[in-house]
Amino acid sequence: MTSRLNPYLSFDGDARQAMEFYEQVFGGTLALNTFGESGMPDPAFADKVMHAMLETPGGFTLMAADTPPGMEYRPGSNFSVSLSGDDATELRGYWEKLSAGGSVAVPLEKQMWGDVFGMCTDRFGVPWMVNISEPAS
């Protein structure tokens, strides 16, 4: 798998509706995972979207999630740039360069869904998400 760069949008509880709307606009295949499916114990947040990905016939990829409890939702700056793939060396290199001189919100480490993931804001104020998956066998 090659590395992928795409926008990642954050929502305040309506990610499912937004992504279903974008699916109608662009077509394609929408995959949704909820916080409850991932084991979040808070029943008030169980049906909210932990991760959504829309892949379109035209080659667009759009990802999104509802802002989890404890994180601030900031309209107008509710996006990140997502880097993902299975080339750990390449993606860790990007992470090191992007986070240098910036701030780290989530350290790049193994997460509950099994991938290595981190969130940082670079020195120019651009938020980034890096997700390293296991190579397909």
Concise synopsis of the structure shown:
With 137 residues, the chain is α+β, with helices and mostly antiparallel strands. It has helices at 15-26, 88-99; strands at residues 4-11, 29-34, 49-55, 61-66, 79-85, 103-110, 116-121, 127-132. It has one domain (4-132): 2,3-Dihydroxybiphenyl 1,2-Dioxygenase, domain 1 (Roll), CATH 3.10.180.
Mean pLDDT: 90
* Radius of gyration from CA coordinates: 15 Å
Give the number of DSSP strands. Answer: 8
The CATH homologous superfamily is termed 2,3-Dihydroxybiphenyl 1,2-Dioxygenase, domain 1
Distance between the termini: 11 Å
**Which range best describes the helical content: under 10%, 10-25%, 25-40%, 40-55%, 55-70% or over 70%?**
10-25%
Task: Write the CATH architecture name.
Answer: Roll
How many structural domains are formed by the residues? 1
Strand content: 35-45%
Weakly predicted, low-confidence segments: none
What does this structure look like?
It is a single chain. The protein has two helices and eight strands. The protein has one domain: Roll (2,3-Dihydroxybiphenyl 1,2-Dioxygenase, domain 1), CATH 3.10.180. An eight-stranded mixed beta sheet has the order 2-3-4-1-5-8-7-6, with helices on one face. The longest helix has 12 residues. By secondary structure, it is α+β, with helices and mostly antiparallel strands. The relative contact order is 0.21.
